[in-house]
Write a structure and sequence with these properties.
The structure is a homodimer. In chain A, 28% of the residues lie in helices and 33% in strands. The first copy, chain A, is of the alpha/beta class. In chain A, strands 9-8-7-10-11-13-12 form a seven-stranded mixed beta sheet. A four-stranded antiparallel beta sheet of chain A has the order 3-4-5-6, with helices on one face. A two-stranded antiparallel ribbon of chain A has the order 1-2. The radius of gyration of chain A is 18 Å and the shape is globular. Chain A starts with a strand and ends with a strand. At the A-B interface, strand 2, helix 9 and helix 10 of A face strand 2, helix 9 and helix 10 of B.
């Protein structure tokens, strides 16, 4: 009988998910982190960084649609977009569905993430070769420090605040992002799971609120992330509304999103009471 | 070193969750099913039926608030409520927060579920002793067959459609429920996870649609259920709206719900595109 191989990711000390693995396609250490790619029967290929699931072929559409279409359709005319992290290409793929976008800067610290994803995840990385995209292999913190009022939308598609992602959860970084945005600019950043990471979320939103006049949380169902519930911070310099997605531009997105639609967009900002309570002033600030 | 005991529940053949266990408090076979109660560090006590998580002390509030307050606050004056299943008492506890409710019939097939939950889950079962509650140890299908226009709200708080819960997913049962409801009556039934159970959901909603003129799905985040995403069917005889929760009655609920609020109520009916597509006519039927 063949060996049964199961990957188990602990989401807390005493809870986790477990996924049967048919093959370990890659396990390699880059300058920054351990990169692993597993083949699985249920989720297809899975990308792990430092042993944690970053994406699976089966459910990555939720994360990538929700981290991109929510800010892009909240903005009246997103021409220039910055993505910090996201070397897997999934966010770029979705941003490129918006014809208004003229240019995307992708700042990924780890060249090897891009190289290996190009090799193993062609359905995610196809957009990285677009003439609209410039890839910068650089530290996102340094990159943003040197930007001045350049971007309509900045997307922080980061890992958890441990390891290379740590500096992307500081107030100094949020101030640099604020400066890097145009007047009507928007920031969206992944912000962990309210069921598991209250200790990260509360300080993160306090810092965001110190920098941005409007800061809201929205939620999505992502089965392979802790608790199956993931949050995103939506921060504006002050003159955009989170609940007015542009329905006409949505109708033109091709191929049609599988998770996102304008109703889901508006609804994702409705927070359960226990989540409201971990934000400085609920979702009304 | 002490033994490390982990409970693993498979949600598909090749995926699941795993939870560290400090103690197996109960493992007993009733006439209908295997009843297990585990003590765990993260989720507190867990109730399993036939080896599947029914509830945990940590996250049961989501399920029980969402299966009760959504129908009860959609209804203008819910006086008489029937709960099919729900021997753990969680749904009764939430329904009793509504002062309009004069009487609750709870129909649980398995006396042992009630007895063991009274012993191990006092925070769930407290309401079962209320003078407003009548417990019927009976087959829910038989019970409903004999009802005529009796109830304002019927809640099907069932297990999966395997084992004792199977007959609760048939069109004949839905017809009996329709007959058991008053003219403005509402049915809410748990309806599995859209990320995992499309094969159950599609036929279930087709059957419901054959019986009820209005039938919609709503969603909630439940970390210990498959994919962390759970759905409920909301079915009305025709003259109520799903998106008009009574905000004044919500304000009076004591203690205040931890998940449910009127905004979450309305938003929970917004379905991702891939979920809309597994329903006979999306959420607009």
């Amino acid at each position: 009988m063949d060996m049964e191989l199961w990957y188990t990711e602990k989401h807390t000390e005493t809870t986790g998910i477990t996924i049967k693995v048919t093959d370990c396609l890659l396990q390699e250490k880059s300058k920054y982190q351990q990169i692993t790619i597993l083949q699985t029967p249920h989720y297809g290929k899975i990308l792990l960084l430092d042993g944690l699931v970053m994406l699976t072929e089966r459910d990555e559409f939720v994360y990538h649609e929700m981290i991109t279409h929510v800010p892009l359709l909240s903005h009246p005319n997103p021409q220039k977009v910055l993505i910090v992290g996201g070397g897997d290409g999934g966010s770029v793929r979705e941003v490129l569905k918006h014809p208004e976008v003229e240019h995307i800067d992708l700042v990924e610290i780890d060249q090897m993430v891009i190289d290996k994803c190009r090799e193993y995840f062609p359905t995610l990385t196809q957009g990285l070769s677009s003439p609209k995209v410039t890839i910068h292999i650089a530290n996102g913190i340094q990159f943003v420090k040197n930007c001045r009022s350049d971007y309509d939308v900045i997307i922080v598609d980061s890992t958890d605040p441990i390891g290379p992602g740590e500096g992307l959860f500081t107030e100094a970084f949020y101030q640099d992002i604020h400066r890097a945005l145009r007047d009507r600019g928007l920031l969206v950043a992944q912000s962990e799971s309210p069921f598991v990471h209250e200790n990260i979320i509360s300080p993160m939103y306090r810092k965001l609120k110190n920098v941005f006049p409007v800061c809201k949380m929205y939620l999505a169902f992502i089965p392979t992330y802790p608790a199956g519930c993931w949050s995103f911070a939506w921060c504006s310099k002050g003159n955009l509304l989170s609940d007015r997605p542009d329905e006409k531009r949505y109708e033109k997105l091709q191929p049609k999103p599988r998770y996102y639609n304008p109703q889901v967009h508006r609804s994702s900002f409705s927070l359960p009471n226990f989540v409201e309570e971990m934000l400085p002033n609920g979702n009304s600030f």
